[in-house]
Design brief:
By secondary structure, the chain is of the alpha/beta class. The chain is about 35% helix and about 20% strand.
Length: about 350
Amino acid sequence: MKKIIIISLAVAMLTGMVQAQKNPRNVIFLIGDGMGLAQVYAGMVSNGNKLQLERFKNIGFSKTYSASNFTTDSGAGGTALACGVKTKNGMIGMTPDSVSVPSILELASRNGLSTGIVVACALTHATPASYIAHQPNRGMYEAIATDYLNTNIDVMIGGGRKHFERRSDERNLTSELRAKNYQVAYTIDEVKNTKAGKLVGLLYEEQNPSVPERGDMLPDATMAAINILDNNKKGFFLMVEGSQIDWACHDNNTEQTVREVLDFDKVLGRVLDYAEKNGNTLVIVTADHETGGMTFPDGDIRNKTLKAEFSTKGHTGTPVPVYAFGPGADKFTGFMENTSFKEKIEKLLKIKK
């Protein structure tokens, strides 16, 4: 009888562990802006045929078309990922008929989770704006900056200081953020020295510089954000963007594309190390769209070289890869709509609307 009880308890414990593994406490959502499969492979070949991305075993594809166009922009693409709705190109955080939709970050915050945004561009740029703002035009940078004050986001790190401090309405949003108990950092060292509380890092006047000029800003800022957000026992949601893969592809610059992909991959390595040790963190990687129509007519794996060609200086409608690691990663395989991420994350985090 005792053996039966012991076995039953063991089975119950194992079942409980398996069930617990299905629902993460934290979600880290990483967006390689403009990063299609070709951009990934360009980084891989140039890096000795290896990337941190290869540590992901759950892989799928996201369809990126918007409500107004076969080829999305970052506003509509980011809104689909963040808010779960298709919208018109250029719109932020709302439906095509201008109805605001809460993002997964906003819902996570309302449910008591800590939240953060870390980007290699201005915080007011289209992709980060999609997680925090609700505006009819992605170019409304000052209005987007103001939207940050309408949320309880815990950590935000990027560029775009001018939209917070040197505004046409003469408001100083940094002062207002301080009044809301935010610590304000202007350098990456100040960011790294912040261990708890709310933080806004306005590291550049406008856009962040490209790699190598910005150094390890993105991986260092990402880990600083995780260290702060991880203080919340309820969990956290963090969005990180490798913003300038897109810009390099707009320029049809293969070498810079590789540098930006490798910088983003360095972030992934550190995040995966954290997730493996933590055990309760789901890591998702995708793109809002592909940029440049990048292809490879030729290359040499041994010499770490490739011949790249681009079909456009704009975006394309090609589906983009999705990578997932950790509890719930199996939900992100196969072909999926870019609007499906929000609902899947809601269910995994057991978020109440």
